[in-house]
Write a structure and sequence with these properties.
This is Aspartate aminotransferase family protein. It comes from Streptomyces canarius. Keywords: Aminotransferase, Pyridoxal phosphate, Transferase. The chain is built from 14 helices and 16 strands. The chain is an alpha/beta fold. The strands form four sheets. It has a seven-stranded mixed β-sheet with strand order 4-12-11-10-9-5-8, with helices on both faces. Strands 1-2-3-15 form a four-stranded mixed β-sheet. Helix 1 runs parallel beside helix 13 and helix 6 runs parallel beside helix 7. The radius of gyration is 22 Å and the shape is globular. The N and C termini lie close together (8 Å).
Length: 449
């Protein structure tokens, strides 16, 4: 790669993005009453001077207010893994809200038991409770873990992702000890008071931290996903489960992103045995929904504790959690959209995407790598692929990343804006994947010219 060409190429693509998107640029300039000019500040995490504004979306396509259509491999950073507005979810939401009436009445619906049973079939956990986000599911799983173990600390992996959970915003510092993740906003206390940290794929480091005897639970993704895909090495997850049992800590699998591994996430695909499992985003087909599951043994232990107010003070995901609309959307998504068959097709497409990216990398002999987790694929600017979150963070190259994202977007392709990740949905086609392969190859050719 000719690195000296990159600044000029990035400037060219930035100028092209501004030329192509005058309505988005104008809308962003007018957004004086929004904090950061966007409805949620993550929407500023995009290549270029402003985000594209949404006009509509259906299946694997997004249209912006300037009339451009995109092949969408971002899919709402996993929230739309079922595709945009899938027909079964649209029908279920309309039936619940417009025909039956009522989104939230603080009353259960029969759909909830169906969803709980289906989540048990997929993931193996026996008892389920609902939230609106995976962040909330993680918060309540953590509280239950502390309650049942009597221990104060939560252990996470360096550069993990569990939403905005305070306990998770810790990384491994240069000296190997835990320190606050850079950029954290308004931490309520020193994160080392609430948390311990170990590198992913480091069993010795995990045991060293668990040996203190104060860890209530290990909260982890079975594969890191939000710092680039970091896959577990052979024997690592088995070792995590053995160590947590040996040291009396619970194991919480956060499958919010790793749900891409299959209909039961990594937990089913790799025969894992967590004590709790959290999930959100994709299960509602785009409607806000999250859930946490507990093993039968853990649920019985908690329900047997007469000193815990599990009705009013514990396990509560918020007033709107488990509302009829979210639960109806979740049932439709799991029953009709993100089915076992759909996951098989999505994984095959992700394999095709991976092969196309790998061919481009190899054609130019770039020291890059590509990793896949079921329906999700990502390429990194380092080889071999990182084995820890800290290694993956060190491989970041914002200038190169921005160029590739803008180059693709200017030619009708969206990747996840946080990194170079592509996710397949049931409506993604082989032609969509091949279009990315062609445009990606063209971008690399320009870098190599």
């Amino acid at each position: 790669m000719d690195r000296t060409r990159l600044p000029a190429l990035l400037a060219r693509e930035s100028a092209e993005a501004e030329r192509r998107n005058p309505r988005s640029r104008a809308a962003y300039a007018r957004a004086d009453h929004l904090f950061g000019r966007v409805p949620m500040t993550w929407m500023n995490k995009t290549a270029g001077a402003f985000p594209r504004y949404l006009a509509g979306a259906r299946g694997a396509r997004v249209t912006d207010v300037d009339g451009h259509a995109y092949i969408d491999f971002c899919l709402g950073d996993t929230g739309a893994m079922a595709g945009h507005s899938p027909a079964p979810v649209t029908e279920a939401v309309h039936h619940r809200y417009a025909e039956l009436g009522g989104a939230t009445a603080m009353l259960p619906t029969e759909d909830a038991e169906w969803v709980g049973a289906e989540l048990t079939r997929r993931f193996g956990l026996a008892r389920w409770s609902f939230s609106l986000t995976a962040t909330d599911a993680n918060r309540w799983a953590i509280r239950l873990a502390r309650a049942v173990t009597g221990r104060p600390k939560i252990l996470v992996n360096s550069y993990c992702y569990h939403g905005s959970v305070d306990e998770s915003l810790i990384v491994t510092g240069p000296d190997g000890t835990g320190t606050a993740r850079p950029g954290n906003v308004g931490a309520p206390c020193d994160v080392t008071l609430t948390s311990r940290v170990a590198e992913f794929n480091d069993l010795a480091g995990l045991e060293r931290e668990l040996a203190h005897g104060d860890v209530a639970a290990v909260l982890m993704e079975p594969a890191l996903t939000n710092i680039g895909i970091v896959l577990p090495e052979p024997g690592y997850l088995t070792g995590v489960r053995e160590l947590t049992r040996r040291y009396g800590a619970l194991l919480i699998n956060d499958e919010t992103h790793t749900f891409s591994a299959g209909p039961g996430g990594c937990t089913a695909a790799w025969d894992l045995e967590p004590d709790l499992l959290t999930i959100g985003k994709a299960i509602g087909g785009g409607i806000p929904a999250g859930a946490y599951g507990l093993s039968a043994e853990l649920a019985d232990r908690l329900l047997g504790r007469t000193d815990l107010d599990l009705v009013d003070m514990g396990g509560v995901g918020g007033t709107l959690a488990g509302n009829a609309l979210s639960v109806a959307a979740t049932r439709a998504t799991l029953e009709h959209v993100l089915t076992d068959e759909a996951f098989a097709r999505m994984a095959t497409l992700a394999e095709r995407f991976e092969a196309g990216v790998r061919a481009g990398i190899e054609a130019h002999r770039l020291p890059w790598s590509v990793s896949r987790l079921g329906a999700r694929t990502e390429y990194r600017f380092t080889s071999p692929a990182p084995r820890t979150g800290t290694e993956s963070a060190a491989a970041s190259d914002p200038e190169l990343e921005d160029f590739l994202h803008l180059y693709l977007a200017n030619r009708g392709i969206l990747l996840t804006p946080f990194h170079n990740m592509a996710l397949m949905c049931p409506d993604t086609t082989e032609r969509d994947v091949d279009t990315h392969t062609e445009v990606f190859a063209a971008a690399l050719a320009e870098l190599a010219a």
